[in-house]
Amino acid sequence: MYSVTDIGTLGGITSSASDINDSGQVVGTASTTNRGDNRAFLWDSINGIRNLDTSGIDTSSANSINNNGQVVGVYSPGVGINRSAFIWDSVNGLQNLGTLPGDNSSTANAINNKGQVVGRSENNSRIQPFLWDSASGLQNLGLLNEYNNSGAQAINNNGQVVGFASNDRSVRAVLWDGNTRPQNLGSFGTFLSQANSINDNGQVVGVSSVDNNGSRAFLWDSAKGLQQLASLDGYPNSYASDINNNGQIVGYTFSDFRALLWENGTVTDLNTLIDPNSGWKLGSASAINNKGQIVGSGIFNSQPLVRAFLLTPVSQIPKSVPEPTYGLGSLFCTLGSMYILKRLHKSAKVKS
User: What is the SS3 assignment for 219?
Assistant: First the structure.
């Protein structure tokens, strides 16, 4: 069973949690006004939610946090101005990571405990995957053969990177492993797959379409290759967002949105693991740390707007601590395999 904690907002009415580190610090995006202006946030159990030091920025999103408290994401100085990848910490504040040569916008998607950052750099005609570190700056990870666009979604503490490669015909889950060329992880015989997370054991999770109308969450490893994860009864379409070093996987169903946990080969609706009288509907799970804490998105008491939540295994909560408050979940992830493909052409983290 899990307790549910409301992450809150930055004065607005919605929030979305993207990642959680092993100290229980949570990052994501929250609205600052009822108009929906969004800013990157950092939350912890002592200080609550706070706006990252992003003064002069119109919109921002925090996508990943490592165990050193370093945060990466994306910001825009104003409407119509190109996006910029950033890294933030409490000492140095926000740093613009720039772009690869010839590009005009970038997004940082993940950071590992060594401070290595991965993401995407792009212009109006291409998307390129990058790796950044403080010594070498931005480096192009390289493209999969016959694919002209690519983005890096996650990096583990061994420097292995996963993401996607795309062309006009298909999208493929990709692994960059050291100095080797990008590896196509395949799909379930269809045009689309994307890798979203990789743990320190080299296990990869993501999503692959299975036909024109369906998608399935997958687990990949070097021994068994691509494996379809179990589906929740009555909800065949699924998406895997993250995997921790214990092999626990989180994600969601596409239909009727239900946050999912895969563990020991079994899939569980996380709504069945919280107080049934809480008023919550947990719609998606975005990340899980190595202590089993989960962040995700949901709605409370049938309200139309959503807020970020944190799930904590009840066994981790000292009995002397009052019950956590129940709150609202975060914005749902991109839905449907066709919509994912569209976003990839237009436009998940690390465990200790």
Answer: strand
Q: Which residues contact 243 (CB under 8 A, 6 or more apart)?
A: 197, 198, 199, 203, 204, 205, 219, 249, 250, 288, 351
Q: What is the CA radius of gyration of the chain?
A: 19
Whether 153 and 110 have beta carbons less than 8 Å apart is answered as: yes
Nearest Cα to 199, choosing from 156, 241, 164? Answer: 156
Q: What domains can you pick out in the chain, each with its CATH number?
A: 2-346 (2.130.10.150)
The residue count for the chain: 352
Per-residue pLDDT at 105 exceeds 70: yes
Going across the sheet that includes 214-221, the strands are 193-198, 204-211, 214-221, 225-228
| 20-75 pLDDT tens trace | 999 999 999 999 886 668 999 999 999 999 998 666 677 899 999 999 999 999 99
| Strand 238-243 with 225-228, pairing | unpaired
What would the two tokens of residue 140 be? Answer: 């192009």
Task: Please report which confidence band the pLDDT of residue 211 belongs to, taking 50, 70 and 90 as the band edges.
Answer: confident
Q: Which residues contact 22 (CB under 8 A, 6 or more apart)?
A: 67, 289, 290, 291, 351, 352
| CB-neighbour burial class of residue 145 (10 A; exposed 0-12, middle 13-18, buried 19+) | exposed
Contact assessment for residue 195 and residue 187, using Cβ atoms and an 8 Å cutoff: no
